[in-house]
Amino acid sequence: MILDVILFYGAALVAIASGLFVISQRNPINSAFSLIITMCSLAVMFAMLGSGFIAVLQVVVYAGAIMVLFLFVIMLLNAKQEEGERMGGIGRAGIILGVILAIQSVMVVWKGSSILPANHRDTASVDVARGLFSDPRFLYPFEATSILILAAMVGAIVVARKEKGK
Amino acid sequence: METLLTPALKEIAIDAVIGVIKLAVIFNVLLLVFSLMTYIERRILGFMQFRRGPNRTGPWGILQPAADGIKLFFKEELMPEGANKFLFFAAPVVAIITAYVSLAVVPYGGPLVLPFYGPVSLFGRPINIQIADLDVGILFIFAITALGVYSIVFAGYASNNKYALIGGLRSSAQMFSYELALGMSWVSVIMAAGSFRLNDIVAAAERMNPWMWLLIQFPAFVIYMIAACAEVNRTPFDLPEGETELVAGFHVEYSSMKFALMQMAEYINMMTVCALASNMFLGGWLSPLPGVIPNSPLWFFAKMGLLLFVFIWLRATVPRFRYDQLMNFGWKRLIPAAAIWVVLFSGLTAVFGEKKTPPSTVAIIAPAAGQVSR
Prior knowledge:
The complex is a heterodimer of chains A (166) and B (374). Chain A is mainly alpha-helical and 166 residues long. Chain A is 76% helix and 0% strand.
């Protein structure tokens, strides 16, 4: 399908370009904006793979909720523009690893003419619900994770709360 | 040409053509409704506050929106000194895009049926008055609304103005707090319909009878309307632009068409939440007297118009919240109320079965939930 290919490369290009902006911008707010765009273009990819549910969750959770917290922190702490610093050893190692990863992903895209199997069909949100809640293999970890997240939330509040009288 | 178009490609082409036509029609109709809204709102406000409202431009002042548009077009664009130019420009764009995109999944009516003509079809396909019928409809709107917050945050930050920044921060905190209650008020509707698709929700209301549907979902409807009012920054909750303390909030520095875009996004968002409420709680395009009067998209617009009127009415009558009142109400009243309703509704559904959650039980429990939330 030509349309799919165009959409894929379009979304991929936007994702990579804005990903590069995230690390090259000096102003942290601009970086955050680029990161939001990266996440939205990833959501486009999920939607193209036929799982609209995951795509929407990607936008709600990452682009919506988490990035707003990032922005709050940046704005409230009044983060300054990054000063130019010399790249340390970790930075160099990161570049090497990044290049290796880039080569790998180019190879994957190059080889696989179609990543989806031929008998692939779109995952409706009902399928996700059935998979999660009627299969005991997934139900237990799912519920356990939710309790874990709740515990972490309560923990965060306890840690962040000021003691009375201080 | 014939050989080039394989059947599959032809399908895509037809889809694209139909999509573009629908987009053009719905986009322009909404633009028209938006400009009329600004006029009607001021007229109603004038009527309610014993003033006249705009009545000089054209008959009954109906050309006022056009005059406003021309005025805004020719105003000078200001760029505040020290502003973050890119974000200052991006904020209204984000606002208007998110406002319009979320309207794409709203169904405005069932299959298009013209009087004296019958069902309309293009290229042998029935036409639904909806741009995209997504499986994740409601969630999609939720996601896009979540992105809409950024326009305000960026506008506030990029303006390099302390009032704008405080307005932006306040506004994003407010929208986030009320988004929780908004999302939770949808849960019982989704549970009763068994789907995120807005068409399925209307179909579920049709199976049950729209009035019964509204009765059962009434607590959710109330929570939704309050949260939606805060979400679109309408008057009892319009702290982001509290004139007395923040001049005009996040859009102090905006002028000319950028300001117009911001304003437009606000109105479109208001229309979105009303359209959504009309579909989810009031049965969308279903007629209020099933079997007597036929279903029609006009019903959808009538219900949406009624809710819009309620918003304008609120603006004319209710004073603005204080910031701490707003946060207290959101976190300590509205969200617990929504949570209790979710638990109650799912409990009832589990006990009495999906088919017959008895409305009488709901009618007893709903006032109790109201008591608890008070």
